Amino acid sequence: MMLPGWRQWLFALKISGAALLALGIALWVDLPRPYWAMATVYITMQPLSGATRSKAVYRVAGTLIGVSMAVVLVPPLVDSPEMLTLGLALWTAGCLYLSLLDRSPRAYLFMLAGYTAALIGFPAVTSPEAIFDTAVSRAEEITLGILCASLVASLVFPEPVGPVLAARVGAWLAEAGRWTGDVLSGAGEEPALRARRLRLAAEAAEIDALAAHLAYDTSAQSRATSLVQLLRGRMLMLLPVLSSLSDRIAALRGLSGLAPELRTLLADVEAWSAAGAPACEADALLARIAAADRPLPPHPSWPALVRASLLDRLRELLAIGRDCRVLQDRIAKGGGALREPLAFAGEFGGRAPRHRDHGMALRSALGAFLGTIACVVVWIATAWPDGATAAMMGAVLTCLFATQDDPVPAILSFATWTGVAALAIGVLLFGVMPLVHDFVSLALVLAPPLVLCGLLMTSPKTLPVGLALGVNGNALLAVQDRYTSEFGSYVNASLALVGGIWIAAMVTRLVRSVGAEHGARRLIAVSRADLARAARRRGRGDRTAFAHLMLDRLGLLVPRLAAAPPDSPLRRIDTLAALRVGMNLVSLRRARHGLPAEAVASLDAALDGVAEHYERTSAGSPAAEALLAHIDAALAQIGAEAGTPGRRDALLGLAGLRRALFPGAPPAGGALIAREAA
Q: What PANTHER family would the database entry show (predicted)?
């Protein structure tokens, strides 16, 4: 186990200092429950100062919405516990549903608005007349904790998001550059290396999540948020382009169609990529590609189609690589106007679409609803004095881990460490706290455990442990302006905390838990449905929006495939080949509008065959030979239509489909081969 470095110690000292600052101010202004301010610091503070401020903004807004809803629901429904429980549970579940669909930092606002109403509403049942004062106090305590976390994160050795983001982007592009070199040199890929390439999609999603906090940063890069979005679009498009380029080079090698001039061109592009893709050298290479790219003759041969497709992908690689270099340099300098126009300027504007799983969001919302109801039923049935605490924890825990495929292990771990926190707090509360008589001695007593919690939060593996100890430990300690602890109340509160978490785990196990393989199958299924839909529709389509959506799913799929069993058939699925199918479908939908009626009919038959393949077969199933015949017939029909608009795009799109769906098929026959022989 590695010892914490100075960054970890710095974060631990900052978060413990912010917690003590919040406690001191809360005691000074005589807030009823100052420990809420301490616990809020541990929920809000992040290692990066921009992320802390981003979370703080949404937490304040979510808190205000949640306490307002508690004030609205409790007074009129307090005499009808069934309706009050139903109202709070429905509110929590509905907000969680919106949170899971949002998939941005703003999602935290929805989640917090949901369970804050439960945090305020259930304890207020015993004194509904004081609900407004309670709501105001909780809002003040939580806001105080947020402000202290933001203040310390911003003023005490702040660690901005911008430099970290720039380093992550640089590492991503470096890995993509190594992949580019392997593709252009024709080097083979081991399974471990292919898995590493797929990780680029997941890392792009992580970079996107980090970039979402950039607007709240104080670094120079904070002014380049729009440029980061443009860069991310091009980073994602590199993946299908490189995958297609690798396929075309392999296909031409198999056909002995990789002429010396083409080999020289590939070697020069490889050298350009290895040199960091300098923008000043890209135009000369693009001119050489244009010179090598000859018009497709009537009835073009299969090698000619593959060669033309390779040159198109090579052109896209250079244009995207140049854009990435220009944007990366401009972001490093803090943004500003670009000195030269970007390629694909119209295709990467706006916010990229994201995958939204309404089914799993509904299941998670149902789990939160039933978990809250179950805790309240136990509370009422047993007349449990601290049953409100269990109901609160049931609502909170079913929300906190709802983004995971199987939240139960994380919830149970949280319960375990909450129990550990309860034992430790018991020793502190009844063995040490009676000796504390002023704030200085209180701070000295609390500092070591608070620092320990902060250290645990610096590692992804121990983050849940640190969070459980930091949040629930402070709640159990329940520091007030005078010592009033009573052993029976402490035991009751501890049992309620752990009991509520266990009830949440049991309900989640019954309603919500799925494995990583199940999550992967859902992502693959919805991607296949979108591919079938893209083949059925006859619109022009937005290639970049479609690519972003497919790549967003790929980023979600990769970690699930890694967690699937080694013998899972999902591991054998070529996810990038499915992405190439999607890109070719969009190209064919565009090209279709410029073709004559006979060619359109032939192309439509191929597109319908693709749709049937994705609608009627399972993932990993080979495509039917009838589809190959439809594609070859469309190639022959459209190849005969010389001079028609969209002909080239249609032919290259069909060739791409053929390579993605039938990589082992012999070259297209019939007229194509006959023309090649002639």
A: MULTIDRUG RESISTANCE PROTEIN MDTO, P-HYDROXYBENZOIC ACID EFFLUX PUMP SUBUNIT-RELATED
